[in-house]
Every structure is written in C-alpha cells, then in structure tokens.
Amino acid sequence: MSESNRLFCFGYGYCCDYLGHALVQAGGWDIYGTTRDLEKRALLTERGITAYIFDWESPLADPTAALENTTHLLISTPPGDEGDPSFLAHAKDILKLPNLQWVGYLSTTSVYGDRDGGWVDETSERRPTSKRGSRRKKAEDQWLSLCETQGLPIHIFRLAGIYGPGRSALDSIRAGMARRIEKPGHAFSRIHVEDIVRVLQASMAAPNPGGIYNIADDEAAPSHDVIAHACELLGRPVPPLVPIDEADLSPMARSFYNDNKRIRNEKMKVELGGELKYKTYREGLKGCLDAEEYALSIFQLSGGIGD
Fold it and tell me: Does this model's pTM top 0.90?
C-alpha cells in the first residue's frame, strides 16, 4: 500500500470504528464514513473522521466529492429486502473511482442457515433460513456481480457473532439483562472485534478480489456457557438455566436460536494472518475486561473521551 491511503466506510459502526482507529495509529491513513445520525456525525467529526449522512432515504448528496481519492472501501450497511443500500445508491459512483485498491463487505454467517449443529466452510451452499440471512445473501450477490463483470476488488467477510469491549456478555450481566437459555445441542460461533480488525488489515495489505472468508473463533459454544464464564470473571452469581420453550423470548431473540451451525475458519487463518488473538470466548472476555480497565484509566487521566 502507498504511504497515503483513504478509507471510506459505508456505515461507520462498531467494527469500522475499531478499524479506523487501528489504521490511524499505524499512520498514513485518512478516515471517512457515513452515519444515519446527525449527533453521531458531530462526534465523529470531533475525532477527526470526515462523516456524511447516508441511509435508504438519503444517499450521499455529492458522491463524487465524498468518495474522491478513496483507496479502500468498507461496506457495513445493513441490507433490506432489495439488498445493500450503498450498492443500490452508489455502485456506479464506486466503479468510477480510479484509485480503488480494495473493497470489503461485512456479511454474516447467517447466509448458511441452519445445519443442525454441523460444520460449514466457504464452499458450503448458502441456504439462509431467516430474513436476515436472505438479505445478506442478496447483498453478497450484488457486490460479487461487480467483481465478476466490472473487476471491482470486492472481498466478502462472513462474520460470526461480534463482541468486544462495551459489547459483550459482561455488559449484559452488568445491565441485569443476562439470561442463560438452554437449547440442547445448540452452539453459537463468535469473533472478537480486534480479530476482525486484524483480518481486515491483512486482507487490505494483500488483496484477493473475489475472496470470501468466514471470520470466527476456534470454538462454537452454547450462549449459557459464555454467560456463566462472564459471571465468574465479574464475581457475580450465575443465573439458572432456562429451557428455551419456557424463556418467553421475543421473535428477534428466538430467531438467533433457529440456526445451529459451527463455522470453520481455516481459510481465514491460512490466508489472512495466522492464529487469532482471542481463540475462544474465554480469552476474549478476559480481553474485554482488561480493555475496559485500561480505557477507564485513560479516561480518568485525560479527563474525557479521546482517541
């Protein structure tokens, strides 16, 4: 990569924020992105991130100016029934970018659907069993079509359940919202946000247009095991197990238990950076706890929120 790069993120959320911070720390990067919220736009601007308003009803007002000189593009906008909003609004603008070296699309493992606890890899057929998964599949196809027909350097990253500081079982326990739901034989795959960032940086350094990668840790595990371990780390009592049929879950919460699969991550390891920093939820939750303690010390020293 050149000494000066420009990352533009459609949907500057949790993962994009971690990536942007890592790139700025590395040096030689300018960070741009979109948000749907005016207040968040102001906060991003205060941190040195050039931010634009973008959503389904509000495409970029001047896409040529906003995307000018973009070398790397990350798409993290949630899709709808028609697919990805950034594709629908700005695919033609993106194809005109002369300096574009790498494009990443953050998809999810929901595209695989339910496998009754079986394993899937990147060659497995996509057969989503939820609206969420069907929308992601459509968005993947939209971006991959531009790779096949226009040479767009797209890379698809199918993320397992994302967690990290401020967004983990530790936080749900502190908020009094943690429940240990039991569905025999069910397991979730997860991935720590720092490992997502390491994988994205490795891909950006060695583009492989059309590449598709599962991004998951080494151990799919029942959610109730994760909650129990988080309680132990915090010194809190472990909630009792509640059978899923007695849990009175919302339709959205219950939908996450409908799919049961385990995600293979060998391709990610071989092509994008070797071993994970957080191989399982145990190391990951400890890392979250350590990061929170470090962030608190920085906050106290600086007197406020900063980079």
Answer: yes
